[in-house]
Protein: RNA polymerase subunit sigma-24
Organism: Thermus scotoductus
Amino acid sequence: MMGDTEDAELLRQVTLGNEEALLALYRRHASYVHALARRILRDKDEAKNVVQETFLRIWNKAEYFDPELGTPRTWILTIAHRLALKALKRRPDTLPLEDWDAPVESVGTEEHLDRIRVARALEALDGEERRLLELAYFYGYSHSDLALILGWPLGTVKSRLRRALKKLEVELR
């Protein structure tokens, strides 16, 4: 993909201290980072903090991006996801899992369409796969936590989660 190639070059430029490259990455990806953080945290201000921290992390750690492991957007969103989950775990008021689909403030058309696509893709998964993804990505449980909660061996959790993510990826294409 052309965007991935451009983003990889921008990340390389960030490793050289190019602030304009970081700004370009910010312009391309900040809305996705914010949407992800907002979905997890349900708080505008905390989501903005995650966006800021994500791009600070990119500035400081761009050399760790490995194109063999994924796309630049995936790497950036993984950083944001981890930071949002850390923020969520620090909170005493974590929402119960069933509240994750509660209505949120209006969003832009593109973000709304992305949500519809993801919701449809999740519906295509079986119940166990969908629940496993929700527990891991929306509720923030680690693989070890999931193994304890579900009573499965750790390897089973990892392989089923990986399988569910691959199915989700196919559905989102």
